Amino acid sequence: MLLMLDLATYNTGEPVRLRDVAKRQQISEKYLEQIISLLNKAGFVRSIRGPQGGYMLKNPPEQYTVGMILRQTEGSLAPVVYDDANSNEREFVTARIWTQLEEAINNVVDHITLKDMLEWQEEQINQYII
Amino acid sequence: MLLMLDLATYNTGEPVRLRDVAKRQQISEKYLEQIISLLNKAGFVRSIRGPQGGYMLKNPPEQYTVGMILRQTEGSLAPVVYDDANSNEREFVTARIWTQLEEAINNVVDHITLKDMLEWQEEQINQYII
DNA sequence: CTGTATTCCTATTTGTACAGTAGGATAACT
DNA sequence: AGTTATCCTACTGTACAAATAGGAATACAG
Questions:
Q1: Is residue A4 assigned to a domain?
Q2: For residue B67, what is the domain's CATH number?
Q3: Would you say the C-alpha torsion B59, B65, B68, B73 has a positive or negative sign?
Q4: Which of A91-95, B14-18, B114-118 has the least mean pLDDT?
Q5: Proximity of residue B50 CB to strand C below 7 A
Q6: B26 vs A: CB within 8 A
Q7: Which of A17, A53, A83, B35 has the most neighbouring CB atoms within 10 Å?
Q8: pLDDT band, residue B124 (cuts 50/70/90)
Q9: Number of domains in chain B
Q10: Cβ atoms within 10 A of the Cβ of A113, count?
Q11: Between vectors from CA B99 to CA B40 and to CA B90, what angle results, nearest 5°?
């Protein structure tokens, strides 16, 4: 999440190196490699190898929802993965709760875009200027 | 959760033994002991020791929300525990997302009561009669 | 065409929260 | 007194995300 927000923040047309993201977000570069690999395979970013390489968002920030990103990087967003093989009388009632929760969660994350987050970041910075 | 639902289902005025709950819900009795201990300390159930002992709901099922129960048995319901000590510029934006998620989750679980779950259980049983 | 910077790939380790196990102490009913 | 159940606390197992590690592949720059 912080990775994509960082790419959105530095979305100037020039590729962004993971080393720089790692430094800014205080996350290990090696760990970022694994996250971005998922985002790359999902087609969310464009990668450029070699010197002056790095990553860029493929689309403008308003086209990425938090849900899209989290589903790639964290798998399903359900608090409990509902396993149909185990669907029996006993779990029917709890399954209904998990479904409602999943809907509520998706409803939140699918309505927040990277652009929203950029704006929040702006607000926060303005706070300090006062 | 299944434990409280079981107590609600067999809420006849007679105490319910953990051994029976364990058999019905296919959960180890020893594990149930630890869960019910939390619910007991929270004042949700009444315990009766010795032969013919067991547990009973202290209040009628409509007075227990899923949220109340889960908060006792699973701690905070937030997907990420927001640590004020780590609250810095970097995490401000993500914290805002977690807050929205937490609100959405609470809104779901605080509006489902054990009574609702009992009714769902009924519906499910009726399904098979047709 | 060679050196270097960067992404790319895969295997391993670590941390941690939840689930489950274990053994015995305490209380109360018959 | 003996049995049945709760009560208490410590330990073990497990699954998953977070993090680490080492090196292969690619492409730019000189």
A1: yes
A2: 1.10.10.10
A3: positive
A4: A91-95
A5: yes
A6: yes
A7: B35
A8: confident
A9: 1
A10: 20
A11: 125
